[in-house]
Amino acid sequence: MYLDELFGLTGKVAVVTGGGRGIGQVVAIGLAKAGAKVVILARSNADETLAKIREAGGEAMFISTDVTKEESVDAAMQKIMVTYGSVDVVFNNAGICLHKDTFEATIEEFRNVLDVNLTGEYIVARAAGKIMKENNIKGSIINMASMSGSIVNIPQWQCSYNASKAGVMHMTKSLAIEWADYGIRVNSLSPGYIATPMSVDTPQELKDAWAPLMPLHRMGTPEELIPAVIYLACDASGYTTGSDIIVDGAYSCR
Ligand SMILES: NC(=O)c1ccc[n+]([C@@H]2O[C@H](COP(=O)([O-])OP(=O)(O)OC[C@H]3O[C@@H](n4cnc5c(N)ncnc54)[C@H](O)[C@@H]3O)[C@@H](O)[C@H]2O)c1
Questions:
Q1: Residue among 117, 124, 196 to mutate when testing ligand 1 (max atoms within 8 A of CB)
Q2: Domain at 2-239, CATH class
Q3: Where are the domains of the chain?
Q4: Residue 161 annotated as catalytic
Q5: Which among 15, 152, 162, 168 could disulfide-bond with 145, CB atoms 3.0 to 4.6 Å apart, if both were Cys?
Q6: Which of helix, strand or coil describes residue 247?
Q7: How buried is residue 203: exposed, middle or buried, by Cβ count under 10 Å (0-12/13-18/19+)?
Q8: Strand order of the sheet with strand 89-92?
Q9: Which of 50, 62, 96 to mutate to test the pocket of ligand 1 (most atoms within 8 A of CB)?
Q10: Pseudo-torsion of CA 153, 159, 162, 163, nearest 10°?
Q11: CA separation (Å) from 65 to 62, 99, 120, 242?
């Protein structure tokens, strides 16, 4: 009961981008279990996520959205307002990663990673922030950063990804201050290596190289990110804005 009062999300509408699989899917289920009505914005479909949420007794809907397209995101936000009448929480999670030596990666590839990870999160945050401001919603935006926004992963080269996540972290601080007077909170989450399709598909030799660098000797699970997201989403974190929560098993402490 006390935990429900502190951390419950009943009555809140939570938007999750890239929620068709991976971290987005698991966290979307967690938000629904905590009481939120969940809206999945993803490019293809989110049937599995919707089924799992409904199986757990939660409520969810899917809107086909490309986070790099402003019109697509704006239309999704309008649809959410018509359906649920609010946008209280945004888990700005959609992202891509490119492992490529900088001299081999094309400028187009660099731009594409920045376009999804940084500009995409900006487009979603901006569209949601606008709705929150116009409707006087004291919302919470949680941007997906990464430990890669503050450390350089080895041995794989992923300059575009690291740069995009560093950008997300400073964009988060900038929006937190810019929107503080509207009561809109903006924070970021910085996971370490998490076992999802993005990382599980990586070659075994890479995972072997990562293992000795992980103080906990294992990757994290998407489930281990749910509590941090619920904390940032709920009213208990009312004084937390402009923060980055690191969930990386101490990887970045070295
Ligand atoms: N897995 C990790 O180790 C790890 C660590 C730190 C941060 N992250 C971040 O977590 C987030 C989720 O990663 P994941 O591991 O679950 O990856 P994933 O590849 O399993 O999921 C990413 C999702 O984003 C969606 N997406 C990509 N581009 C999109 C677009 N233009 N519009 C809408 N949706 C789009 C994909 O379709 C997919 O559903 C990413 O931002 C990633 O950078 C992951």
A1: 196
A2: alpha beta
A3: 2-239
A4: yes
A5: 168
A6: strand
A7: exposed
A8: 59-64, 37-42, 13-17, 89-92, 140-144, 185-191, 244-247
A9: 96
A10: 150
A11: 9, 25, 11, 27
For 139-169, the pLDDT digits (tens) are 999 999 999 999 999 999 999 999 999 999 9
Give distance in angstroms: CA of 117 to centre of ligand 1.
Answer: 9
- Tell me the per-residue pLDDT of 59-96, one tens digit each, with 9 for 90 and over: 999 999 999 999 999 999 999 999 999 999 999 999 99
Q: Whole-prediction pTM value?
A: 0.98
Ligand 1 atom nearest residue 193's Cα: 3
What is the three-class DSSP state of 246? strand
- pLDDT bin (cut points 50, 70, 90) of residue 19 is very high
Structure-token pair, residue 135? 């409707």
| 3-class SS letters over 88-146 | CEEEECCCCCCCCCCCCCCHHHHHHHHHHHHHHHHHHHHHHHHHHHHCCCCCEEEEECC
- Nearest-Å Rg of the Cα atoms of the chain is 17
Q: Are strands 59-64 and 89-92 parallel, antiparallel or unpaired?
A: unpaired
